[in-house]
Each structure stands twice: as structure tokens, then as C-alpha cells.
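Dissemination and training. As part of the outreach component of the grant, students in the summer workshop were shown how a complex can be specified as a set of sequence lines and then modelled as a single object. The example used during the hands-on session is reproduced here so that future cohorts can follow it. Participants entered these lines:
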Amino acid sequence: MAFIELRNVSKGFGPPGPNRVEVLRDINLSVRESEFVAIVGYSGTGKSTLINMMAGLLKPDAGSALLKGAPIKGPERDLGLIFQNYSLLPWLTVYGNVALAVNAAFKNWSRKERDQQVRRFVDLVNLTPALEKRPGELSGGMRQRVAVARTLAMDPEVLLMDEPLGALDALTRGELQKEIAAIWEKQRKAAVLITNSVDEALLLADRITPLNLGPGATLGPEFAVDLPRPRSAAALNKNPTFTRLRGEITDYLIEIGRAGKASTNDKIVPLPDVRPLDPSERASRTWVS
Amino acid sequence: MLHKITHILDKAGLAWISPVVRLCAGENPREQGRQIFRLIGVPLIAILLFLGAWAVIAPKVETNVGTLPGPAAVWEQAGGLWQDHRAERERRAEFYAAQEQRRAAFEERFPDREWTAREYSGRPTYIHQIVTSLKTVFMGFFFASAFAIPIGIICGMSKTVYTAVNPLIQIFKPVSPLAWLPIVMILVAALYTTDNPMFERAFLSSAIVVALCSLWPTLINTAVGVASIDKDHLNVARVLKLSWHTKVIKIIIPSSLPYIFTGLRLSLGVGWMVLIAAEMLAQNPGLGKFVWDMYQSSSSQTLSLILVAVFTIGLLGFLLDRIMLTLQQLVTFDESSV
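and obtained this result:
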């Protein structure tokens, strides 16, 4: 049974007319309980729009977003969203940022229980030494860990990740992928990961769906990832299934990328014919005048 | 350590001291010397030039209360006012010492009777007038902030409220304190009728006028600050399902605090300027009344005393602004760390 589901969802922005941009069209996606689904695609194709609808931040124009069969009316505690740009509050410490979520989610807990919850999840992402630091004093990777801890500490039923590692350097990214994989394997919650990295998707997901190019982007064919867990990046590189899947998905993405470029070829905007002035030429002309 | 000190000085608006500190720490004397000349020497030269021009021109201007006083005469008057204050303070101390002696004698003679103490009723000195002015401006500033910050937050959060309030803001903002004062004085006289008033009416009227004129920068800045909160932060509030109260306290106020403080700083500046006019008319015993009284007395010292007041007002205004600037920088978080 589908745990979180998008049914024939379409979404666009702007008023009806020539300025309206249709972003997503006829999206059907369903995630089973304890399943990890990754959506890969080019930037600007509406990946964030897709996940924001699952998180209840945006409403579909047509179709419906469902959580356990009931329509999603707005953000809910069960829908844990990890933002692309961390979105930590710079005036709060690591503890304060996580506590903000815990206090909001568990209003009827005692002060001590909430305190323990905050500390447990800060510890889970290995940030206990930085408990009293502010986001400004942390590296990008550490900030994203705080964001992960903040979301997980609310104990959501679904984990929605909007390119969580997109802004990180390759090494930090690899490390955090490992951590997210380890945490997910412990909790086994329904998870949706938006990413632009096929490798990342293969490392984490049970199923990968590419998002086609917009406007009016649709979802591409599904690729089931039947690789044994726990997965490690080093071991995967020698795994033939991994290599095959990576080849297939990458080929698909390259193909839609090429098709997308071809389809935009017919509306080439003529550029004005401007040439940079040769400074020496201009100088001589000024002299003459 | 050195870096920390210079950083604090920068934050406190005292950046011009940091080359001296660096020089004391033995850091690149040539470069620091040049910095000292630029940050301290140049302003000092400008001030000296100003004083020189003043000293030369002033004696040539004849008025019906004598020639315009030069810097030396003004400085002398400032000293005189300070001497006055010290003498007054001594008289006050003597009065209370004498009263204490009388009380002891009284209680010895009539142990069963109650002693009634008397307040010293000397005239307010220049320093007292400065204190009164500061009290008034802070009172008005407090009224203004207490009104403008909450309204500003609501305006920033709701476009509808802002559209509703905006015309009123635009109409009342340019009104001069001199237009408000008569209304406020009449209203205070009519509404503030207690037998044992906590504040004098003149004080209250001046403070309210200060508030009326100075609340606009805070109101507008707060509204702008709240309206321009990072959308991501508001999304956090939505995703975490924060209550309205928590959202305001934990997200909206902290993130608009830099704007609010910019507004407060402007407000305090406006308030201080308005105060002098308000005190003149309301006869609140502060610097404004001092200037007015001096003008009325028209003695040979009138001009120099008024000039002392002018410099006092200027210096205090500068000081208040510096304090607000420091506070403003203390609450401003690092924008790049979001």
C-alpha cells in the first residue's frame, strides 16, 4: 500500500496567460512504507516543486497529494522535510535549532524528555561537541547535519530530502551520504530523496525515477535498485548491477537532455549584433573629435 | 587578543582608537602612524580650523546683547555652569546634614512624636536639566517603541494591515512637534488628573510629543524588516508547524532585529531633536527650557549660555546615536551564515 502518493499531479506558477509556467504535469509517484525513492533530474526541472507538494508547502493545481490515503492539506509533523539550503536559524545554537522543532512537535512532553530528545539527535549526527555553536561557526556539512537532526528529531513518518547535499563539496558529500544511509537503515522510514547525482541515488535508494525536462515535466521510467544493503561507495564501484544501472540511468538522462536541447532549438532568439569596441580605436577616435 | 580589542572598538564605533591600540602593541609603526593621522589627526585639524574661524568671526558680530561669544567665552560659561552645579550639590549635602542633626536632637527631646523630613528645594542646575531632558527623551522613546514595534510587526506580517495603516503613517509622519504639542498639552491636562501625579504634566506632554514624532522610523523599519524575512525561514516555521506565538518570538523578531534597531536609532535621533522644541513650549525643566529661559533673560551671558546648550545637545545626541549604533551592531547576526 502506498504510504505517500502523488496522483495525476500538475503544478504551474503565474497567472493564466502567456507568462504562466507549467512546471509539472501528470506526476504519479507512490512510496511504500520503509521504501527509499530517489528522483534524479536536471536543475530547474521542478524537483523542488515536486517535493514541496509532498511536504504540504505547495498545493497541486490538479490531482492530489496523499499521505496514507488522506489528502495533504499543509505541512504536518509526519512530513519531515530537509531543505536544500539547510534553512537553519542563524541566531539560534545547534541545540536551539533542534529544540525549536522538538518543542513544537512534542508539546506535551516534559522539559527533561524534550531535552533528551534534542541531545539524542544531535548526538546521532555527531555534533555533540558543537551543541552550543551557532550555524555561522559551522561548516556546510555540519550545518546540513543540524538540519538532518532537526528533521529527524520530530520523528516524522516520511523523510523528504530536497537535494540535501547539493551545496557540499565532494568529500563532505560522500561522508554525509554514508551517515544518511546508516541513519535510514536504522529507522527504515518512507523516504524521498531529490538529487542530481545518480551515484548518490544508487547508494541510498530502493527505486530511482528520473524527472524529465520541463516545461510540464513528467516522471520517467522507474529503475529498481536491487543492491544489497548496507551499501558502500567503494564496494558498489565493483558491483556489476551498480555499473549497469548507473549506465542506464545516465544514458536516459543524457538522452532527455539532448532531446530537450533539440526541442528548444526552434526558438532561437536572435542576439543583437554588438561587438566590443577596441579601446585603442576609441581613444584615437576621441583624439580626432 | 589584539584582534579582539580592535574588533570591539570597531563595533562600538570607536574605530579611530584601534590604530593607537595597534601602535601600543608594536604593530607596524609607520602604517599605524598614517592611520592615526587619517582617523584622528584630520578630524582634529578640522575642529581646530572651525574653532579658529569662530574665534576670529564672532567678535565682529554685534547683537543687542553684546558681541557673539567666541569659543573661550563659551568654554568659560560651561565651567561656570559646572561650578554652579557643584556648589548646589554642596548646599544640598549641607542641608541634609543639618536636617539629620536636627532630627537626632528632635527624637531625643520628643521620643513619642513623629519627625517630618523635608525635601531640599534648591533650583535645578544645568546638570539636572540635562538629566531631565534625558529622562524625557527616553520616556518618549519608550512610548514610541512600545507602540511602533508591535504595530510594525503586524504591518510587516499582513499586507492588508499595512495597506490600511500606510495612509495614516504617511499623513502623520511629517507633522511637526509644534503642531502636536498644544493638542497633547490640552489632552494631558484634561485626562491626566490625579491628586498625586507620578509625572509632571509638562514632562508627560513633552514625552508624548517626542513619542508621536519619533515612532515613525521604528514603525516603518520594523514593517520592512518583518516583510523582508528570508522566505526559507518562514518555510521552516511552516514545516515545523510553529504556533503563531513561537513564530513571532523565535523567527520574526530575531530576523528583523537589525531593521528594528536601525529604526530605533533613527527614532532616538528624531526624538532628541524634537525634545528641545517640545520642552521650550511645554516648559518642561530640561535643556529646551534652559535655552528659552536664557533667551528671555537676555543678559550679556545669554549667547554663550545658549551656545553651551547647543554643544551639550549636539554632544549628547552624538553619544546617544553611538550607543544605539553599538546596540544595533551587537544584535546584527552574520547574514552569510544562514
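Strands of chain B lie at 62-63, 66-67. Students were then asked to discuss how this feature might be tested experimentally.
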